[in-house]
Amino acid sequence: MKHLHTLKSHTDTLAQNVFSLEGRLALITGGGSGIGLEIARCMAQAGARVIITGRREAVLQEAVAGLGESVDYVVNDITDLASTDDLVEQIELAHGPLDIVVNNAGINMKKPALEVTDEEFNRIIHTNLNSVFSLTRACAKRMVKRQHGVILMISSMAAYYGIDRVVAYAASKSAVEGMVKVLASEFSADGVRVNAIAPGFIETEMSRTAMNNDPERRDRAMRRTPMGKFGQPEDIGHAAVFLASDAARYITGASLPVDGGNSIGF
Protein backbone atom coordinates (compact mmCIF):
# COMPACT_ATOMS: atom_id res chain seq x y z
CA MET A 1 0.00 0.00 0.00
CA LYS A 2 2.90 2.32 0.76
CA HIS A 3 4.20 1.81 -2.79
CA LEU A 4 0.76 2.65 -4.22
CA HIS A 5 0.57 5.80 -2.09
CA THR A 6 4.03 6.91 -3.29
CA LEU A 7 3.06 6.23 -6.90
CA LYS A 8 -0.15 8.22 -6.50
CA SER A 9 1.73 11.16 -4.96
CA HIS A 10 4.21 11.10 -7.84
CA THR A 11 1.37 11.02 -10.37
CA ASP A 12 -0.41 13.89 -8.62
CA THR A 13 2.78 15.95 -8.65
CA LEU A 14 3.26 15.33 -12.37
CA ALA A 15 -0.38 16.26 -13.03
CA GLN A 16 0.04 19.50 -11.12
CA ASN A 17 3.36 20.40 -12.72
CA VAL A 18 2.20 19.90 -16.30
CA PHE A 19 -0.35 22.70 -15.86
CA SER A 20 2.09 24.98 -14.06
CA LEU A 21 3.47 28.19 -15.61
CA GLU A 22 6.18 28.46 -12.96
CA GLY A 23 9.23 30.28 -14.32
CA ARG A 24 7.41 31.56 -17.43
CA LEU A 25 7.08 35.20 -18.46
CA ALA A 26 3.80 36.20 -20.15
CA LEU A 27 2.82 39.38 -21.99
CA ILE A 28 -0.91 40.12 -22.14
CA THR A 29 -2.24 43.04 -24.18
CA GLY A 30 -5.33 44.79 -22.84
CA GLY A 31 -4.62 43.14 -19.51
CA GLY A 32 -6.01 45.87 -17.28
CA SER A 33 -9.68 44.92 -17.45
CA GLY A 34 -12.24 42.35 -18.56
CA ILE A 35 -11.03 39.08 -20.05
CA GLY A 36 -7.40 40.27 -20.24
CA LEU A 37 -7.36 40.96 -16.51
CA GLU A 38 -8.65 37.47 -15.72
CA ILE A 39 -6.11 35.85 -18.06
CA ALA A 40 -3.42 37.79 -16.18
CA ARG A 41 -4.85 36.68 -12.82
CA CYS A 42 -5.08 33.02 -13.82
CA MET A 43 -1.58 32.96 -15.31
CA ALA A 44 -0.14 34.61 -12.19
CA GLN A 45 -1.94 32.04 -10.03
CA ALA A 46 -0.40 29.30 -12.19
CA GLY A 47 3.06 30.65 -11.33
CA ALA A 48 3.87 32.93 -14.27
CA ARG A 49 5.37 36.38 -14.09
CA VAL A 50 3.03 38.59 -16.09
CA ILE A 51 3.38 41.90 -17.94
CA ILE A 52 0.11 43.60 -18.88
CA THR A 53 -0.18 46.43 -21.38
CA GLY A 54 -2.82 49.00 -22.21
CA ARG A 55 -3.27 52.69 -22.91
CA ARG A 56 -4.68 53.78 -19.53
CA GLU A 57 -2.03 53.84 -16.82
CA ALA A 58 -4.49 54.28 -13.95
CA VAL A 59 -6.36 51.12 -15.00
CA LEU A 60 -3.10 49.17 -15.27
CA GLN A 61 -1.91 50.40 -11.87
CA GLU A 62 -5.17 49.34 -10.24
CA ALA A 63 -4.96 45.93 -11.94
CA VAL A 64 -1.38 45.34 -10.78
CA ALA A 65 -2.27 46.38 -7.23
CA GLY A 66 -4.92 43.67 -7.17
CA LEU A 67 -2.87 40.97 -8.87
CA GLY A 68 0.24 40.90 -6.71
CA GLU A 69 4.00 41.16 -7.00
CA SER A 70 4.39 38.78 -9.94
CA VAL A 71 2.54 41.20 -12.25
CA ASP A 72 3.91 44.42 -13.76
CA TYR A 73 2.66 46.77 -16.46
CA VAL A 74 3.85 48.81 -19.44
CA VAL A 75 1.74 51.60 -20.92
CA ASN A 76 1.47 50.94 -24.64
CA ASP A 77 -0.90 51.54 -27.54
CA ILE A 78 -0.87 48.43 -29.71
CA THR A 79 -2.08 50.43 -32.71
CA ASP A 80 1.22 52.34 -32.79
CA LEU A 81 3.03 49.75 -34.89
CA ALA A 82 6.28 51.76 -34.97
CA SER A 83 6.68 51.20 -31.21
CA THR A 84 6.10 47.43 -31.23
CA ASP A 85 9.70 46.24 -31.56
CA ASP A 86 10.82 48.70 -28.88
CA LEU A 87 8.06 47.46 -26.56
CA VAL A 88 9.22 43.85 -26.81
CA GLU A 89 12.89 44.82 -26.44
CA GLN A 90 12.08 46.98 -23.39
CA ILE A 91 10.16 44.14 -21.73
CA GLU A 92 12.84 41.53 -22.39
CA LEU A 93 15.66 43.81 -21.20
CA ALA A 94 13.78 44.53 -17.97
CA HIS A 95 12.22 41.13 -17.26
CA GLY A 96 13.93 38.46 -19.39
CA PRO A 97 12.82 36.40 -22.40
CA LEU A 98 9.10 36.16 -23.10
CA ASP A 99 7.65 32.65 -23.03
CA ILE A 100 4.01 33.53 -23.67
CA VAL A 101 2.23 36.32 -25.54
CA VAL A 102 -1.54 36.74 -25.39
CA ASN A 103 -3.04 39.01 -28.05
CA ASN A 104 -6.11 40.03 -26.08
CA ALA A 105 -6.55 43.76 -26.81
CA GLY A 106 -9.23 44.55 -29.36
CA ILE A 107 -12.22 46.74 -30.17
CA ASN A 108 -15.72 46.15 -31.50
CA MET A 109 -18.47 48.19 -33.11
CA LYS A 110 -22.11 47.25 -33.58
CA LYS A 111 -23.56 48.87 -36.68
CA PRO A 112 -25.43 47.71 -39.81
CA ALA A 113 -22.91 46.84 -42.53
CA LEU A 114 -24.38 49.36 -44.98
CA GLU A 115 -23.67 52.16 -42.53
CA VAL A 116 -20.05 51.22 -41.72
CA THR A 117 -17.60 53.73 -43.17
CA ASP A 118 -14.20 52.80 -44.60
CA GLU A 119 -12.57 54.68 -41.73
CA GLU A 120 -14.51 52.69 -39.13
CA PHE A 121 -13.81 49.39 -40.86
CA ASN A 122 -10.09 50.15 -41.16
CA ARG A 123 -9.85 51.22 -37.51
CA ILE A 124 -11.12 47.85 -36.32
CA ILE A 125 -8.99 45.90 -38.79
CA HIS A 126 -5.93 47.90 -37.74
CA THR A 127 -6.49 47.30 -34.01
CA ASN A 128 -7.66 43.68 -34.13
CA LEU A 129 -5.52 42.34 -36.97
CA ASN A 130 -2.61 44.55 -38.05
CA SER A 131 -1.58 45.26 -34.45
CA VAL A 132 -1.88 41.59 -33.52
CA PHE A 133 0.35 40.53 -36.39
CA SER A 134 2.92 43.24 -35.62
CA LEU A 135 3.30 42.20 -31.97
CA THR A 136 3.21 38.51 -32.82
CA ARG A 137 5.99 38.95 -35.39
CA ALA A 138 8.15 40.93 -32.93
CA CYS A 139 7.78 38.26 -30.23
CA ALA A 140 8.02 35.29 -32.61
CA LYS A 141 11.37 36.46 -34.04
CA ARG A 142 12.84 36.05 -30.58
CA MET A 143 10.91 32.89 -29.69
CA VAL A 144 11.91 31.11 -32.89
CA LYS A 145 15.58 31.86 -32.18
CA ARG A 146 15.18 30.44 -28.67
CA GLN A 147 13.19 27.44 -30.03
CA HIS A 148 10.51 27.98 -27.40
CA GLY A 149 7.31 29.98 -27.00
CA VAL A 150 3.53 30.12 -26.95
CA ILE A 151 1.40 32.63 -28.85
CA LEU A 152 -2.31 32.89 -28.05
CA MET A 153 -4.90 34.85 -30.02
CA ILE A 154 -8.33 35.80 -28.74
CA SER A 155 -10.85 35.01 -31.45
CA SER A 156 -14.65 35.17 -31.23
CA MET A 157 -17.92 33.48 -32.06
CA ALA A 158 -18.07 36.16 -34.77
CA ALA A 159 -15.42 34.14 -36.62
CA TYR A 160 -17.52 30.97 -36.35
CA TYR A 161 -20.89 32.12 -37.66
CA GLY A 162 -22.62 35.21 -38.98
CA ILE A 163 -23.54 37.64 -36.22
CA ASP A 164 -25.36 40.66 -37.57
CA ARG A 165 -24.05 44.23 -37.25
CA VAL A 166 -20.40 43.35 -36.52
CA VAL A 167 -18.98 43.06 -40.04
CA ALA A 168 -15.59 44.67 -39.33
CA TYR A 169 -15.10 42.79 -36.07
CA ALA A 170 -16.08 39.48 -37.68
CA ALA A 171 -13.70 40.13 -40.59
CA SER A 172 -10.84 40.85 -38.18
CA LYS A 173 -11.45 37.76 -36.06
CA SER A 174 -11.91 35.50 -39.11
CA ALA A 175 -8.55 36.77 -40.35
CA VAL A 176 -6.96 36.04 -36.96
CA GLU A 177 -8.22 32.44 -37.23
CA GLY A 178 -6.52 32.12 -40.62
CA MET A 179 -3.34 33.68 -39.26
CA VAL A 180 -3.23 31.12 -36.44
CA LYS A 181 -3.14 28.26 -38.94
CA VAL A 182 -0.41 29.82 -41.09
CA LEU A 183 1.80 30.85 -38.17
CA ALA A 184 1.41 27.45 -36.52
CA SER A 185 2.54 25.86 -39.80
CA GLU A 186 5.57 28.15 -39.97
CA PHE A 187 6.65 28.29 -36.31
CA SER A 188 5.78 24.93 -34.76
CA ALA A 189 8.89 23.12 -36.00
CA ASP A 190 10.88 25.79 -34.13
CA GLY A 191 9.20 25.05 -30.81
CA VAL A 192 6.68 27.90 -30.97
CA ARG A 193 3.01 26.94 -30.65
CA VAL A 194 0.22 29.19 -31.93
CA ASN A 195 -3.42 28.76 -30.88
CA ALA A 196 -6.64 30.74 -30.48
CA ILE A 197 -9.34 30.87 -27.87
CA ALA A 198 -12.81 31.74 -29.14
CA PRO A 199 -14.89 33.08 -26.24
CA GLY A 200 -18.63 32.69 -26.38
CA PHE A 201 -20.83 35.13 -24.51
CA ILE A 202 -18.73 36.06 -21.49
CA GLU A 203 -20.10 38.20 -18.68
CA THR A 204 -17.95 41.32 -18.37
CA GLU A 205 -18.93 44.86 -17.47
CA MET A 206 -18.74 45.84 -21.14
CA SER A 207 -20.77 42.87 -22.39
CA ARG A 208 -23.40 43.32 -19.67
CA THR A 209 -24.00 46.89 -20.80
CA ALA A 210 -24.16 45.84 -24.46
CA MET A 211 -26.53 42.94 -23.77
CA ASN A 212 -28.82 44.97 -21.52
CA ASN A 213 -29.13 47.56 -24.27
CA ASP A 214 -30.14 44.81 -26.71
CA PRO A 215 -32.30 42.27 -24.81
CA GLU A 216 -33.43 40.51 -28.00
CA ARG A 217 -29.81 39.78 -28.87
CA ARG A 218 -29.09 38.67 -25.29
CA ASP A 219 -32.04 36.26 -25.30
CA ARG A 220 -31.07 34.85 -28.70
CA ALA A 221 -27.50 34.25 -27.46
CA MET A 222 -28.82 32.45 -24.39
CA ARG A 223 -31.26 30.30 -26.39
CA ARG A 224 -28.50 28.86 -28.56
CA THR A 225 -26.12 28.20 -25.64
CA PRO A 226 -26.74 24.61 -24.49
CA MET A 227 -25.34 25.24 -21.00
CA GLY A 228 -27.97 27.95 -20.59
CA LYS A 229 -25.71 30.54 -18.99
CA PHE A 230 -23.06 33.10 -19.88
CA GLY A 231 -19.42 32.35 -19.19
CA GLN A 232 -17.18 34.12 -16.70
CA PRO A 233 -13.90 35.84 -17.59
CA GLU A 234 -11.95 33.27 -15.57
CA ASP A 235 -13.25 30.54 -17.91
CA ILE A 236 -11.13 32.16 -20.62
CA GLY A 237 -8.27 32.62 -18.15
CA HIS A 238 -8.16 28.92 -17.28
CA ALA A 239 -8.27 27.96 -20.96
CA ALA A 240 -5.34 30.32 -21.63
CA VAL A 241 -3.34 28.73 -18.80
CA PHE A 242 -3.99 25.29 -20.26
CA LEU A 243 -2.96 26.24 -23.80
CA ALA A 244 0.16 28.02 -22.51
CA SER A 245 1.20 25.09 -20.33
CA ASP A 246 3.04 21.87 -21.12
CA ALA A 247 -0.29 20.07 -20.79
CA ALA A 248 -1.01 21.43 -24.29
CA ARG A 249 2.46 20.78 -25.70
CA TYR A 250 1.07 18.84 -28.70
CA ILE A 251 -1.63 21.39 -29.54
CA THR A 252 -0.92 23.98 -32.21
CA GLY A 253 -2.95 25.69 -34.93
CA ALA A 254 -6.15 25.10 -32.97
CA SER A 255 -9.07 27.34 -32.07
CA LEU A 256 -10.68 26.39 -28.76
CA PRO A 257 -14.30 27.52 -28.27
CA VAL A 258 -14.97 28.40 -24.64
CA ASP A 259 -18.63 29.07 -25.14
CA GLY A 260 -20.93 26.74 -23.18
CA GLY A 261 -21.68 25.00 -26.48
CA ASN A 262 -22.85 28.17 -28.25
CA SER A 263 -20.96 27.40 -31.45
CA ILE A 264 -22.79 24.07 -31.83
CA GLY A 265 -26.11 25.16 -30.32
CA PHE A 266 -29.30 25.35 -32.36
Automatic annotation (TrEMBL):
Every Ketoreductase domain range: 24-200
GO molecular function: oxidoreductase activity, acting on the CH-OH group of donors, NAD or NADP as acceptor
Matching InterPro entries: KR_dom, NAD(P)-bd_dom_sf, Sc_DH/Rdtase_CS, SDR_fam
Gene3D superfamilies: NAD(P)-binding Rossmann-like Domain
CDD domains: SDR_c
NCBIfam families linked: PRK07231.1, PRK12826.1-2
Membership in a protein family: Belongs to the short-chain dehydrogenases/reductases (SDR) family.
PANTHER family: SHORT-CHAIN DEHYDROGENASES/REDUCTASES FAMILY MEMBER
Protein name: SDR family oxidoreductase
Native organism: Hymenobacter jejuensis
